[in-house]
Amino acid sequence: MQNVSKTLYIPLYGKALVSRKGIILSDPTAERIWAEAAFPLKGKARSKWLAYSMSMRAAVYDGWVREQLAAAEQATVLHIGCGLDSRARRIGAKACSWYDVDLPDVIAERRHHYTEEGNYHMLAGDATRVDWLSRIPEAETGIVVLEGLCMYLTLEQVTALLSAIRSRFAHTLVLMDCYTTFGAKASRYKNPINTVGVTETYGIDEPEKLAADAGYRYLGQQSMAPEAMIRQLKGVEAAIFRRLFAGSFAKKIYRMYSFEA
């Protein structure tokens, strides 16, 4: 498995950890897969603070997808850069068509743990190329999750991906997280992803321009560390996490944006 693909084990570990603790996110599938995979993460990649952060991020995405499906339950969901995530199971998606998309080596690993059935599909595809999108049926509404992906793509690649996705749907909704340019530079050599050999990351500073260039309307920025989730941590842990991951400095490094077309 190539280095970028190996980063999937970092959020998997985090979701398994918090699920075992009974906080933030219930994910028995992550617990089971982590126990089976036992990938040798080291250092910051096994930080409980990072586990809390990534799990909160995942829970925010879960809530957003649920909200969009409540308004359009027959929509098509694209989770691009899905890794070994179990979002379709966590939110109980049934009526929608769901496509979990990632690089071929990731999908090959994913097939050891998941089975395609009903409206659920796994699709091998590279986010830097858009040929695989022709395999996604055109639909009225597309709900697109770009979680933990855009920091590995250049601005031009993100723009091209968003533009190509928009062409498949009459109505497209996107939620994505990314580094700022400052965040990408600041974290390049002190980042948990370094433990699996990844050092090159990219940032986005002008979401409004990105949206316009890709044919979308910028809807705004969302919190990846809601206060209600932070309060699930115990005592001093909540205070430390709030300072590290929910303060003004954290927002200078890492952000979450939503778009609509």
Please characterize this protein's 3D structure.
The model has no long low-confidence stretch (mean pLDDT 91). The protein contains 12 helices and 7 strands. It has helices spanning 3-6, 9-21, 28-37, 48-71, 87-90, 104-110, 155-166, 181-186, 207-214, 227-230, 235-245, 248-253; strands spanning 76-80, 97-102, 120-124, 139-146, 169-179, 217-222, 254-260. Helices cover 42% and strands 18% of the residues. α2 packs across α3 (28-37), α2 (9-21) packs across α4 and α7 (155-166) packs across α9. The longest helix has 24 residues, at 48-71. β1, α5 and β2 form a beta-alpha-beta unit. It has a 7-stranded mixed beta sheet with strand order 3-2-1-4-5-7-6, sandwiched between helices. It has 261 residues and is α/β, with parallel strands linked by helices.
